[in-house]
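User: If only I could read backbone structure tokens as easily as an amino acid sequence. Underneath my words sits a plain record pairing an amino acid chain with its backbone structure tokens. This is the protein in question:
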Amino acid sequence: MKTKSKNIWILLVSALSVCVAAVAWFFMKKKKATTESGENSPTSVGGDTSVNVPTKAIGYRINNPLNIRYSSANNWKGQTGELSGFCVFDTPENGIRAAMVNLKSYRKQGVVTIGDIVSRWAPPTENNTQNYIDFVCKKLGANISDEVEQDAQSYTALLQAMCIMEIGAQPYDVQVWAKAAQTANL
């Protein structure tokens, strides 16, 4: 009788161990998937291409690191199509260039402060906009009401911070940003 009781106890403990392991595995996979997606989860510092390249983030895979939405009204330089509602670009330079041209368009409409730019770029219907603004301001060492100048240096700094929010990292080197700024006529 003792042996049968002991065997049942061992079986129950084994089953419980398997359940605990399965739950732990599930949560580890879920955390890893959230981190690797890169969407709105800043996890690295800008400019360091050896850290956390967001290869699974859609914006990274389609050369659209600022996650510009597709619109048939736009025909961006280097745009090759659409995937999941986002523009697909042939190179990261052209994806970044489109973001810079977009910022120039915002300026013409009077959208010039960090708060206004981010609120328009990442509306509350799709994002935690205040968190996004706070993150960008912290990265830039700026305030929500600071105006972003229309020049290569200012647009690059702003978009690099936004890139981290959009895809989880800023994996592009200085030449990519410089080429994008040049082709955007900044």
Observations:
- The chain is about 55% helix and 5% strand.
- Residues 2-37 form the longest helix (36 residues).
- The CA atoms of residues 105 and 142 lie 22 Å apart.
